[in-house]
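Retro notes, item 3 of 5
We never archived the inputs for the protoporphyrin IX containing FE complex last cycle. Fixing that now. Sequence and ligand:
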Amino acid sequence: MPCRSWATPSSLPTTPRGSSAAHCKLSRKSNPQTRRGIPSHRPSHRFGLNRRRFGSVPFRLSVGLDSIFFIPYGEPIQAMFKNARDLSMKPIIVVAMRDQFGMPPADVAIYERDGSGGSAKPLDGWEHMDPAHRIFHSQHRDLHAMLNGASLEGMTARFMANYTARLRATAAVGDEWTELPDLFALLRTDMFHAACTSMVGERFFELNPDFCRDFWEFDGHVLTYLRRPPRWMAPRAFAVRTRLLESIKKWRQYAGRQFDAADPALAAAEYEPVWGARLMRVRADVFAKAGASPDGCASMDLGLLWAANANVIPATLWTLLGVLLSPDLAARVRAEMADCLDTDTDSFRVSALCSKPLLNGIHLESLRFCTAATSARNPVIDDFRICGWRIPRDALMLSISWFGAHDARFWNTGRTLPDGTPEHPVDAYWAERFLEYPDDPASGPVRKPAAASRRPAAKRTPAHDKTAKAISHTAALGGYFYPYGGGTRICPGRHLAKQEMLGAVAVMLREFEIELLDPAAAAKAGPDLSVFPTGALGPDRKLAVRMRRRRKEEAR
Ligand code: HEM
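Structure as it came back at the time:
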């Protein structure tokens, strides 16, 4: 893929497709009260993004009357993630709930009144808060518990079964080649239905058949909501959000009527078709005890459905595209997939897929390549310091994962070509970037000495891939790679995300033959920077394909 240069997003920051958000209108005004030794960069009306600006030193951005402290990658972001107890995500969650997910003021107040922190032990001075009102802690506890272990296994198994069933039933692709204008649209429909059904149950789409279409229209308006225009200036954006919230309310009312909470078998079930995953029932109970209204509960559920789908589906697109662009990679990926197929059940063992070196590597490279997620925190102590820099209490600290993930000084960029350019620049997708091969000292994600990059590239085979190791641990990449954020507030859905990404790619490649109609144009596709930095970014163009079903014997 060719080298891509920076676009210029019109404002910063926005929200990660997790929970955090910030409504910021960049302005030339600065607030002298917040000048405490942090260098200040005044943004111009459009925010020119380049690495020099996002160097290794924290700096302050003036945003209206407030300031944002930009925390760069490397040591500073690691320090931010380590100091969880002195930092809060409350202000940013309040903004996300209010501005993006349309939560009514009375429900936003439930978040605002909780200063007890996310940990089991309340922060000093908050020991006597009613546990039912500790909304941050309850959510954190339930998400981490129920997106792990047996609950996670169940969620992934349902996703795989739903996704496979949808692809097998789709009328869009038959036995003969069919041209489809947009591969991403296909993933956005089928993955979304499969993942949501596994989370909110089979009845959800029966009640709300247009939810998927509305969801992606809503996703396209995220930056609009965060700019907080009056409703009359963005009628379509607000109308679609209202439709989504009404759909969720309809489902919640239905589930409340249909579900027999007194039935012990149902209460213990990890999944049933009305509420879906137990996580949704547990959350409903927590919200009710905290005093949330039906409208407030709908906003919280919209937040979760958005976090659970808006990143993982674009990230999957890049994994699949990487495979489709390279016949050699496709053959090696299929070799790994073949090892993970359980012939008795005719389904993939997702845990096996997730432990294969090459599959692991392409999942990591997809996240590196496309993710511009923000991690935001506010100090809850007076004298918070990061690498010697002092950040005032309650000030917004913000970091964007893209910059470290695209620092050419850090990442391995492969061989140096005769014209002096790197073979695999950081703004191109390189399936092997994260892989360390024991017989190749030039391999591995981190930049190698110049001599190593002059060695000829080795031709990889499935046998080589078996010996490789995908490197993503903090000791190697710490501070340069944090698509899921970090510390105790790291994305609770990261395991599910990886399983869905690799599971979806495996099922797609098994069920269908897929060919890009214009591989040269597809190779030029890059992340859509017009929505920077809202998380994992989808492609900046449509990717037309032709597809047909694999014959049974080929699928194996
Ligand atoms: C490629 C996929 C994904 C990416 C890149 C991603 C990224 C993130 C990031 C950066 C954060 C903020 C972490 C921080 O501030 O340090 C976050 C939070 C969150 N993510 Fe994900 N995420 C992904 C998939 C998922 C999935 C599948 C779920 C499923 C439920 C999920 C649920 C959440 C939730 C609920 C939060 C908020 C947690 C809190 O408030 O503490 N995410 N995610």
